[in-house]
């Protein structure tokens, strides 16, 4: 009979929670930038861009909540103030020309890629050092979501006839299929 897996030590849970709180801050800054772009973008593709960015910040909102719950499941508190987020984030809070949707989207793509790099650099840490496969699986899923979101933003730039309505239908269909 196999023995039950060992629990994380307090030190491991604390170190992993510290990483997750930094990731939470990065996600929240990206969420805020995406929301800001959603509110303020103004160019000929405004309607489609507005709908598209709403999808993006909705996905980020779920990811933020999931990270906070993962931190809590490790027995630690999730950061929840802008002061805390801004003190640990690795993201920049640059000012954008909201009349230039290309620049805004390129910035968001770069931010997703930054988070992807951060996660890639920490996956081995959680897996090898602490044998925390649950967190490894969790952050791998986050990384995959960021890869998809960055790809979608890049696709939006390359397809001037992009339809957020059709995109919403596709995403909704995928979600339904994932839970059947």
Structure description:
The chain has a single domain, classed as Ferritin, core subunit, four-helix bundle (Ferritin), CATH 1.20.1260. Helices cover 76% and strands 0% of the residues. It has helices at residues 10-40, 46-73, 82-88, 101-129, 133-158, 164-178. It is built from six helices and no strands. By secondary structure, the chain is mainly α.
Portion of residues in helices?
A: over 70%
How much is the average pLDDT? 85
Low-confidence stretches: 1-5
Q: What is the CATH domain class?
A: Mainly Alpha
Briefly note the structural class of the backbone.
mainly alpha
Query: Number of DSSP strands?
Result: 0
Radius of gyration: 18 Å
Give me a quick take on this structure.
This protein has 180 residues and is mostly helical. Helix content is 76%, strand content 0%. The longest helix is centred in the first third of the chain and has 31 residues, at 10-40.
